[in-house]
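Entry 14. Structure prediction run on the chain below.
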Amino acid sequence: MDTRTWDTLVGSMKSTYAEGVREGAVPRPVIMPLVRGELVGLVWVRPTEPGADALTGIAALSNIAAAAGADEVVLAWETREVATACELPVVGPSPCLNMVRATPEGHVLHRFPYTERPPSVGSAETGGSVAALDWDPPSGPRPDGELPPPVKAAVDYAFTPMDLDHPNPFGVTVVLMEEDGYTVRLTEGFGH
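Output returned:
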């Protein structure tokens, strides 16, 4: 992936997270598979129950990447949200948007910590209890940085070829994931 694509994905995720937090809901974990540098799309984890279901739901994000034959993936998640959903300890800065770039050869973890700014007294801001996010300086890229178990599983399985006896394994995977409640947004070249 070129630098411009990475910067676009980071900017998009920061914007998505800022808007979500302002509205009172941290966006769910998302995977962005790429094939030869081209973004396949974005897939957000389905609604999950705390514990094992959340672990499975996040790990299964890998299915779309495997079905697409991705050679690179980016996953984004919020530290506290994933720890809470999966009933795991919080590891790393919190609150923090995490993004991992991964290929079959390894991964690099990028952390974008932020501070939630409450609405000012008497302001017209409505919705959540946060008016804005102030992005703190990001920590440097961490090659092979520690990933939460479900994110590590999603990264590991994203590059495992799918053995699916179907004429269109990618298309059927998209349909099955949508039926399971995943939110799938494909780019134009990969639409089904």
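Residues 117 and 132 are 5 Å apart (CA to CA).
Filed with the rest of this week's runs.
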